[in-house]
From TrEMBL:
Keywords: Transferase. It comes from the Eukaryota. This is TGM3 glutamyltransferase. One of its GO terms (molecular function) is protein-glutamine gamma-glutamyltransferase activity. It comes from Pitta sordida (Hooded pitta). GO terms for cellular component: cytoplasm. Belongs to the transglutaminase superfamily. Transglutaminase family. It holds the Pfam family Transglut_C. Residues 2-85, 106-194 form the Transglutaminase C-terminal domain. Gene3D superfamilies: Immunoglobulins. SUPFAM superfamilies: Transglutaminase, two C-terminal domains (SSF49309).
Amino acid sequence: VFGKDINLILILNNLSSDRKTVKVDMSASTILYTRRTVAEILKASTSVELGSKQGRHIRVKIPYSHYVRYLTTDKRIQVTALCEVMRTHGLKLLVEKTIILEDTNIIIKLPRRIVVNKAVTLEISYANPLPEPVSRCVLLVTLMNQQVKINLARLAPRERSKIYFEFTPRRTGPLQLQVDFSCDKFSHVKGFVTIAVA
C-alpha cells in the first residue's frame, strides 16, 4: 500500500544434496510503466549457506522514506535479486518482481437510488496515507463533462476526511464520476464510480 514500508521475502531452496554458498545482490528501483528506471532506491548484498535440500528466507524491507521522493504516478517498483552459486563456474539466477503500490484513499458513497432531474448528494472520502502531513490538497471532480476543482484543508498523517458533493442528473443511463486527488507530496490519486440513473 502506498505510504507504508514494503516487506518482501526472497526464498532460496537448495534442491541438491551438496552444500551451496549463494551470493545474493538485491536491488530495487522505481520505474515507469514502460519499465524505464527512474531511481535506484535499494542496494544490498548478502551471502547464504545452504545445506543439503535446505531452504532459507531472506527478508527485505524498503522503507517508505526510501521510495517516496522517486515514485511516479505509475507507482511501480522493480525488485531484482541476482543469485550466484559460488564455486560452480558462475551459475547465476535472476529473480525479478514488479510491485504496483495500491491507493486505498478515495471512497465514493452513492445513495441507493438516483433518479433523473432529482438532486442527489454523494459522499467523497479521501485520505492522507503518509506518515507525514500534506498540504495544498485539491480534489478534481469530473461528472457529465464538467470539472469542479475543490481546494481542501491540509491533512495530518494518516488522516481521513470527507466532502459532500451535490448534482442533478439530466438524463437516464450510466454516468461516470471521476475523482482526482493531489497534494504537495503526491499527485493524481484517482477514484471513480459508474452511477446508474433511473
